[in-house]
Design brief:
single chain; mainly alpha; two-stranded antiparallel sheet; Helicase, Ruva Protein, domain 3; 30s ribosomal protein s13, domain 2; elongated
């Protein structure tokens, strides 16, 4: 397995798709990295030489792509900033609700958690 940015990328997949296993790299940036490093996109990771793997590493640093820990830190700092200034998205993060305008009457169980049924209460 090739190790790039502290992540073991899958050997049997094509290079751009296996680069997507690194946090902060999507398919478009993976293709840009392959183009910059002059690596054939149709090659599988197991077919890469050590020079090509190091060229990919160099391309990530040269293109200034934030990956793994640096990217996660940036995202958490952005969320913290929005919470602190009290903007709408920050309030939604604080309450644990969907941020981007999704419906909440049904769905959104990932953000809201397990359903809590509220009983009718006691009759007086």
């Amino acid at each position: 397995m090739a190790r790039i940015s502290g992540v073991d990328i899958p050997r049997e997949k094509k290079v751009p798709y296996s680069l997507c296993y690194i946090h902060g790299i999507g398919l478009t940036s993976a293709k840009n990295i392959c183009e910059y490093a002059k690596v054939d996109e149709n090659k599988r990771v197991s077919e890469l030489t050590d020079n090509q793997v190091s060229a990919i590493r160099d391309a990530i640093t040269a293109l200034q792509i934030r990956v793994e820990g640096e990217q996660r830190t940036q995202v958490s700092m952005d969320i913290k900033r929005k919470r602190d200034i009290g903007c709408y998205q920050g309030l939604r993060h604080r309450r644990g609700l969907p941020v981007n305008g999704q419906r909440t009457k049904t769905n959104s169980r990932t953000r809201k958690g397990k359903r809590r049924t509220i009983g009718l209460g006691k009759k007086v």
